[in-house]
């Protein structure tokens, strides 16, 4: 929470919301911005809560038995999908507030999409959705699997955090939106808070 405060206020400052006059579907850019922020914060809080209480108390397994990971997927994925959707809606509502779209900006956006999408493909093909959901918090079989070193994970074990979040930067660049780029910075910074404050301690506990 302490790390969230400076990240949040820094994002608000960079977004310069007072100068945002755009809208989409009758909703102001400022509202899209805060909807995105709230979704991200709630998402990561829920992940922290479920991971920690499942790890310590087997909460989901006690409540849902063999369906624990399935139920968790139904909770997790809507928040995950909303991240790029809301960021895109914000970018469209704030279209070209920072610069006009050009061939250069479009090329940069495409170059960022390549590692982002390849990472998502690598998660699906080599890592598996259930394991990516935090399967090692739920089932022992995931704890006994070797580390993934294929696809984008060949270049970094933290590929999901390092490369997949380039998707949000691409959205901001494609729309030329100052607010969307600020949201990309917020999401990419805040996911590393999750990495170091939730994921890494849990991995030490699970894998020793």
Outline:
This protein is mostly helical and 208 residues long.
What does this protein look like?
With 208 residues, the chain is an all-alpha fold. The protein has one domain (4-207). The protein is 72% helix and 2% strand. A two-stranded antiparallel ribbon has the order 1-2. α4 packs parallel to α9. The two termini are 26 Å apart.
Compute the number of strand runs: 2
Give the helices and strands as they follow along the chain: HEEHHHHHHHHH
Q: Count structural domains.
A: 1
Q: Helix count, per DSSP?
A: 10
Give structural attributes.
208 residues; 10 helices; mainly alpha
Write the layout of secondary structure elements.
Blueprint: H1 4-15, E1 23-24, E2 27-28, H2 29-57, H3 59-64, H4 68-93, H5 103-127, H6 129-132, H7 140-143, H8 159-162, H9 166-175, H10 178-207
Antiparallel strand pairs: 1-2
Helix pairs in contact: 1-10, 2-4, 2-10, 4-9, 4-10, 5-9, 9-10
């Amino acid at each position: 929470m302490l790390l969230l405060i400076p990240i949040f206020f820094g994002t608000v400052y960079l977004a310069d919301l007072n100068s945002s006059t755009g809208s989409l579907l009758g909703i102001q850019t400022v509202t899209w911005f805060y909807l995105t922020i709230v979704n991200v914060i709630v998402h990561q809080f829920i992940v922290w809560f479920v991971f920690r209480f499942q790890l310590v108390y087997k909460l989901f397994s006690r409540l849902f038995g063999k369906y624990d990971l399935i139920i968790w997927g139904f909770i997790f994925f809507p928040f995950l999908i909303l991240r790029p959707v809301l960021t895109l809606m914000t970018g469209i509502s704030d279209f070209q507030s920072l610069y006009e779209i050009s061939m250069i900006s479009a090329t940069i956006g495409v170059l960022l999409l390549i590692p982002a999408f390849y990472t998502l493909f690598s998660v699906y093909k080599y890592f598996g959705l259930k394991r990516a959901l935090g399967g090692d918090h739920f089932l022992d079989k995931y704890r006994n699997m070797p580390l993934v070193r294929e696809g984008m994970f060949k270049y970094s074990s933290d590929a999901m955090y390092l490369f997949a979040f380039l998707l949000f930067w691409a959205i901001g660049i494609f729309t030329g939106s100052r607010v969307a780029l600020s949201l990309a910075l917020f999401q990419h910074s805040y996911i590393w808070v999750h990495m170091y404050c939730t994921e890494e301690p849990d991995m030490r506990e699970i894998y020793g």
